Amino acid sequence: MKNALVAIALIVTTAQAAASPVFASKTGTMQTALDDLSLALIDHGYELVKVQPIDHALVKRGYSDPGIRLAFVGKEELVLQALATDPALLSLLPLRLTLENENGRIRISSDDLAQWRERMPSSGAVLQKWEDELAAILSDYSGLH
Amino acid sequence: MHKHNMPALFKTLLVVLFSVIAGTAHAAEPALLTQFVAGRTLDETTEVLKQAIASHNYTFVRQQAIDSRLVPVDWEVKSVRIVYFCNFDMMDAALRRDIRTARIMPCRITLIEGSKGVDLVAVNPAWISEQWNVPDLQPGCVHLKQDYLAILEEAAL
Q1: Structural domain harbouring A100
Q2: Minimal CB count within 10 Å: which of A14, A78, A116, B113?
Q3: What is the reported pLDDT for B44?
Q4: Within this chain, do residues B25 and B58 fall inside the same structural domain, yes or no?
Q5: Whether residues B41 and B117 fall in one domain
């Protein structure tokens, strides 16, 4: 019985862990985070396609500052991979990163590509590659000073 | 003592199993929302899509080729385009509730032109939010999904 419960607990824990988006966090401002992210992206052959300053957009319209910006990132190869694998993957491009200001630390997290791997197993290898690349980019981001 | 605990363990086991089954049942929500627009070009579809966005109280944000800024402008793929839009009231309310809602912002629809028309594809926010296990957020994301569907349908008329 104990073994069965341990096995179930492991399955649930593993499922929850697999569903976590990749993220990295370090001290700084939104601008320094974007500067460092840009450098990390270049090192991995990626481009910063567009920054969506949700914080500015909302404040400008009289709302409170949510401390959030979005960065859309990618490289041509991702588009070609999506077209070759499953055009449905195009709906994930350019890839979205969320920058969140947490009391002086900027946390950058990706969309949850593990969730997509579960739903689109035939595209699993491509999605895993994208997630690995994002993890490497964010690892570099957190290591830059 | 040990024997008395067995029913409790079975109950726990059942609760865990029902939770897993319930989660699987929720997964019936489709990952993508799609609509086919027959007989229109990409440019024509983009225009009617923008009108549908406005008529459902959303603000058009921008449009771009799928590989915009990844290749020189002349080399961009002409048959795949992204349209971004949002509703600032909803954005503000959602972010106040949970910062994770940023992962469904802004709204975006990908347009893929083929020989017979244009496919419109959007990620289903209700499917994304199912994974967060925050029941309070689900109604708002289902509402957003309904808006997506209405916009997609109107664009295809």
Answers
A1: 22-143
A2: A14
A3: 98
A4: no
A5: yes
Range of the domain at B4: 1-29
What is the C-alpha to C-alpha distance for residues A106 and A68, in angstroms, rounded to an integer?
Answer: 9
Sorted by sequence, the CB contacts under 8 Å of residue A114 that are 6+ apart come out as A18, A19, A20, A21, A131
Do residues B72 and B8 both lie within one domain?
no
| Residue with token string 């469904």 | B104
The pTM assigned to this predicted structure is 0.85
Q: Which residues of A touch B74 (CB under 8 A)?
A: none
A 10 A CB-CB count for A17 gives: 9
The number of distinct structural domains making up chain B is 2
ipTM of the complex: 0.85
Tokens of B83: 């349209």
Contact across the interface for A91 and B77, Cβ inside 8 Å: no
Q: pLDDT tens-digit profile of B10-53?
A: 555 554 454 444 444 445 899 999 999 999 999 999 999 999 99
Q: What single letter denotes the amino acid at residue B138? A: Q
**Chain B interface includes A123 (CB < 8 A):** no
Pick from A54, A91, A111: which is nearest to B32 by CB?
A91
Contacts with B106 from chain A: Cβ below 8 Å: 52, 70
Which parts of A28-94 are beta strand (E)?
A: 47-52, 68-74
- What's the DSSP call for residue A50? E
B58 and B25 fall within a common domain:
no
The answer to whether the Cβ–Cβ distance between A61 and B88 falls below 8 Å is yes
The closest alpha carbon to A118, from A20, A6, A4, belongs to A20
Instruction: Report the CATH number at residue A55.
Output: 3.30.310.70
Same domain, B17 and B43: no
